[in-house]
Amino acid sequence: MSTEERETAILDAAEVLLAGSGLKGASMAAIAKAAGMSKRTLYEVFPCRAALFEACIRRIRLSFVRPLDGKDRDRPLRERLLALFDPEARTADMTVALGILRTIIVEARNHPDLGQIFLREGPSFSRAIVRDELIRAQEAGEITLRDPGLSAAMLCDMVFENPLDRLIDSDRKPQSVEQAKDRLQIAIDTFLGGCRP
Questions:
Q1: Helix crossing, 125-139 with 148-159: angle to 10°?
Q2: Tell me, what DSSP letter sits at residue 191?
Q3: Would you tell me how many other CB atoms lie within 10 Å of the CB of residue 54?
Q4: What's the pLDDT score for residue 170?
Q5: CB 122 within 8 Å of CB 57
Q6: Which of 175, 145, 144, 147 is nearest to 159 (CA)?
Q7: Closest by CA position to 30, among listed 15, 47, 45
């Protein structure tokens, strides 16, 4: 296996174990076994569980918000925001992502370092990507904002379904791609309607 293939196998195993068994069930030994490799090989790719956890959160976050590449950066703001949040590009299994979120909520008190990794690599990083795009748009005269950071946080809250509903009601059906696209378009239109110069 290439390094990339090993990393993918490890992250796949770690995500499933974290979502299904929590931190106790997601030991490095259990992850190595689930990934079909030795602990030594696992430690060659990820030197500690915190680094592995950080990579898991980063991979899930990239499924929700991705920085724009060169060709997208010249498009109008509405199109840039649609590309940043594109639901069709989401590769994360939402059941697994919710399971990991549940684990973080349960374990954050006893493992505050993992809670901080989640916040830094997940919501905070996503909001920073959006904030930077909003600052670029403001500098180009496309929008007017009092506080780009707060505006980015509010836009992210509008775009994404509140996970509490699904964490509390396990029978609730996941949002379809079409529903996510509709929500995204309404959120962006509402947001842009309030900050046009």
A1: 120
A2: H
A3: 18
A4: 81
A5: yes
A6: 175
A7: 15
Instruction: Give pLDDT tens digits for 71-125.
Output: 888 899 999 999 999 998 887 788 888 889 999 999 989 999 999 999 999 999 9
d(CA 184, CA 112): 32
CATH class of the domain whose range is 1-47: mainly alpha
- Burial (CB count within 10 angstroms: exposed 0-12, middle 13-18, buried 19+), residue 74: exposed
Select 65-195's CATH number: 1.10.10.10, 3.40.190.10, 1.10.1040.10, 1.10.357.10. 1.10.357.10
Residue 197 pLDDT class (50, 70, 90 cuts): confident
- At 157 the pLDDT is 96
Check if the beta carbon of residue 42 is closer than 8 Å to that of residue 31. yes
Query: Cβ(14)–Cβ(52) under 8 Å?
Result: yes
Using a 10 angstrom Cβ sphere, with 0-12 exposed, 13-18 middle and 19 or more buried, the burial of residue 169 is exposed
pTM metric for this prediction: 0.87
CA 105-109-110 angle, 5° bins? 115
